Amino acid sequence: MYKQLSEILTAARLISRTSGATIKELENHLHLSRRSVYRLLDTLEELGYPLYDEFHGKERVIFLNEHRDNLRWWIPYPQVELNSEDIILLEYLFKEAAKTSAVANEIRRLKEKLGPLLAEGGYTLAGDLHQSGILPAPSLSKKFDASKHQLLKTILQGIQERAVCIVSYQAISSATVKTFRIHPLILMEKYGGLYLFVFVPYYGNIRILAVERIKNFELTEEEFAMPAHFTPEPWLTDPFGIILNKTFTARIWFSPEQAPYIQELNWPEGSNLETQNDGSLILTVQTAADYELKRWVLSFGSSACLLEPEHLRREIQKELQDMENLYQ
What we know:
The chain is of the alpha+beta class. It folds into 4 domains: about 1-75, Arc Repressor Mutant, subunit A (Orthogonal Bundle), CATH 1.10.10; about 85-130, no CATH class; about 160-230, SH3 type barrels, CATH 2.30.30.520; about 235-325, 2-Layer Sandwich (Alpha-Beta Plaits), CATH 3.30.70.240. About 35% of the residues lie in helices and about 25% in strands. The protein is built from 11 helices and 12 strands. It has helices at about 1-15, 25-30, 35-45, 70, 85-95, 105-120, 150-160, 235, 260-265, 290-300, 310-325; strands at about 20, 50-55, 60-65, 165-170, 175-190, 195-200, 205-210, 215-225, 250-255, 270-275, 280-285, 305-310. The strands form 3 sheets. A 5-stranded antiparallel sheet has the order 7-6-5-4-8, with helices on one face. It has a 4-stranded antiparallel sheet with strand order 10-11-9-12. A hairpin with a 5-residue loop joins strand 10 and strand 11. The chain is elongated. This is Transcriptional regulator.
């Protein structure tokens, strides 16, 4: 269902451009057969999108009627049937999503748009956090300047239209801003920040850019094809971060006091929890995030100890020595 909705929204965006969209463009952007594209166009018309076509040479170009805004008066709101539990969950989802400052304004606008639909059923979204019945805990999130919201829209446009882009980016480890061509693949949220998966033709590999460190982002007229077999899921399963490095096996010991907390966490498939005779616990997990793993283990103080890999164990030992020197 989500995939079909995504196809409908992407097709509507492409067709609404001044240049419209050819059947071939829709096939390439949506990875659909010609027959499936025509079925999708039928769905758009059933949803009330007034389409028309023109032939540019041998190419059939689909357009959204230029007077579409004047035709919207007769399109009814969809019927919304929600109960109290639905409203509580919806309010909670809005609050959670708004924690990411990069999309907070868009979330508020979406909430305002949904207001009239919910009012049809006699419901309203709570203005007070306590009214929803679920109170999300505050958390640290990355700063996202208001001027970046146009950047976010441009990035999403580049992803949807599969446009080759030129990006100026400043890595956290360097004061130098580098400019290069990219293929924007997918945008994701993690730890209160937004990250962009891109393919960099110059390097021939996939990289991750933190959106708040993008200094400039321009779309070109050139289109790109998605990398064969690209899927971000393998990188998203790492419990400690979004890292493109090679994975390794980590083993961590936890005290009996911390063992119940570790057991309650939802660890990735393939992880292993070994309860010891004294009630302590040994966690075995695959990760590529060496720095993030060290920081996490250290956060438990003397209640956790990294057993493997040996090179990270030595790094933690040095870190503890440096910390001791700071407190002397």
